[in-house]
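hey m, so remember when u said the tokens were messed up on ur end? i reran from scratch. heres the input so u can diff it against urs
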Amino acid sequence: MASRFSSWDSYFWEPGGPVLRNLYGERDAAVLAQWECGETSAQQFDIERGAVSIPKTYDAEHLRAMHKELFGNVYEWAGEYRTVGIRKNLGEFAHPAVVPQYLSDANRIIRGTDSSTMDRDQFASAAAEVYAYVNQAHPFREGNGRSGKLFMQHVSELSPFRIDYSPAVSGVSPELWNQASMLSGPDRGQYAPQPASLVTVSRAMAVERPPQPPKVSAPDPSRDPMRDRSPYRASFPKPATGATRPGTSEDAAKRPPQRPGQSYGVGRD
């Protein structure tokens, strides 16, 4: 990260100003918001449809790569940890020095959970705990909510559920989600987040995935097909249309049926 992003004011065009430095050179906050929304929406669509490959390691590097992809065309520091403390409303997020530990703990929870067989309540509890740590880390100067929610979509792929943030599907409004996220922060002076407030909204946003058909292994081209045949069928390697009675030639078997009194030169009737 460029060394100039080492203080609160260094992220802005002007000390105390409202507009973050950006790669567009835009100094109008409203215009920047529009550009940012359009760019990140397009990048998110590409990530969700698989057009952009992000290694799914479910750790800090996974989240940083996702943030870099979302905001890399907007901010120079995309994908890099913030160097300053940030707070929202009454909540204060992790000190920059502790950000890596929160993300490490989120990864530990993910890897220590058997997500493949969990039911809806188990999924809601696990998702709430993971997101509470990611949210408290708030590792970037801007764009933590968008990258964190998309990260959770990747995490949900380990389970029988997906996360749908649409209020029309879940009934969870952005205001309710933000409130639950804010309440999940640790108590004053404590380290561990309190994910209980996120459990109900996580359950509402969980959508069961359709069952996957069983995988069928491709045939091994190096395997002898005769090996798997029954001993009886293996003793008759010719197709049924070529099989003849003992003592009858194959050419004779292909001849049309004889009519009484006719001969084909192989003997008398």
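this time it looks ok to me. The chain has ten helices and four strands. if urs says something different then somethings off w ur setup not the seq
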